[in-house]
Specification:
The protein has 263 residues and is α/β, with parallel strands linked by helices. It has a single domain, classed as Spore Coat Polysaccharide Biosynthesis Protein SpsA, Chain A. Helix content is 30%, strand content 20%. Helix 6 runs antiparallel to helix 8. It is globular. The model has no long low-confidence stretch (mean pLDDT 86).
């Protein structure tokens, strides 16, 4: 029923742990594919029940969605390498998508500006939500119907843009434009952490290290450029969202630490 795509690049020390988190899901997956993005130091232990796709060139984050074309299950889940789902994450996604037919993710944002990449509100593992939340884009983990890949690739990526950002906006934009579908974050209840899209402690520790795209100034500019690019193409974001100034990694760690203590 579900095909999973993982990414092996620089955080390969945690790949086996991430694979185990997928295998431990209460809804068992049909297949796991690992995109081995070019890394000269890549050294991973390969399991015979997993498909590894080695590439000698770094094609960035978009390549995972081209690999998804080879998946055979009706649902596809793609994970960033700092994302370790709770054992009932797929159960949560399947339940959510039955009622809220749209793109799902482990972390979603609503932008506070229709002009620049300013985040107004966040939902998911870093800001738990008791109910399904409609957002502008999702990241860290994507869960969607395989048939929607034809919509993702209906417009090709602009190679003048960065290959390391923008795939998240692109997916929500194409689904919105061609299918009228929205983007959601499934419930992340403080009393049901097994249903979360990512373990907050691990996500926080890995997601703010030196490999993180979100905290790289160059990639931050690229994200803003991508956002403006899709706004110009007609991407519509939620209106009337209050501005939240994005904090530092230290601020985020303090915030998540308080959330974890309450769980």
């Amino acid at each position: 029923m579900i095909s999973v795509i993982l990414n092996a690049f620089r955080r390969t020390d945690f790949l086996e742990e991430q694979i185990q988190a997928i295998k431990d899901q209460s809804i068992k997956v049909e297949e796991i594919l690992v995109w081995c993005n070019n890394d000269k130091n890549l050294d991973i232990k390969k399991s015979p029940d997993i498909t590894y796709c080695d590439c000698n060139k770094n094609f960035g984050v978009w390549s995972r969605f081209s690999l998804a074309l080879n998946c055979k299950s009706p649902f596809i889940a793609i994970f960033d390498d700092d994302t370790f789902p709770g054992k009932d994450w797929f159960k949560n996604c399947l339940k959510t998508i039955e009622e809220w037919n749209g793109l799902l993710g482990a972390r979603g944002v609503r932008f506070s500006s229709g002009q620049k990449y300013f985040i107004g509100e966040e939902f998911g593992w870093n800001n738990p939500n008791e109910k399904v939340k409609e957002v502008d884009i999702v990241g860290h983990a994507w869960f969607f119907r395989r048939e929607w890949l034809s919509t993702f690739w209906r417009e090709l990526p602009d190679h003048d843009q960065s290959s390391f950002v923008g795939e998240d906006i692109h997916f929500s934009y194409t689904l919105q434009k061609y299918l009228g579908l929205k983007t959601y974050v499934p419930p992340h209840s403080k009393t049901k952490i097994d249903e979360w899209g990512s373990n907050p402690d691990i996500a926080l520790r890995l997601g703010t290290d030196s490999n993180s795209i979100s905290y790289n100034p160059i990639h931050q500019k690229e994200m803003n450029d991508a956002f403006v690019h899709y706004l110009d193409k007609g991407f519509k974001v939620n209106p009337n969202v209050s501005l939240r100034i994005k904090g530092s990694a230290k601020d985020l760690k303090s915030k998540i630490g308080k959330i974890i203590k309450k769980i």
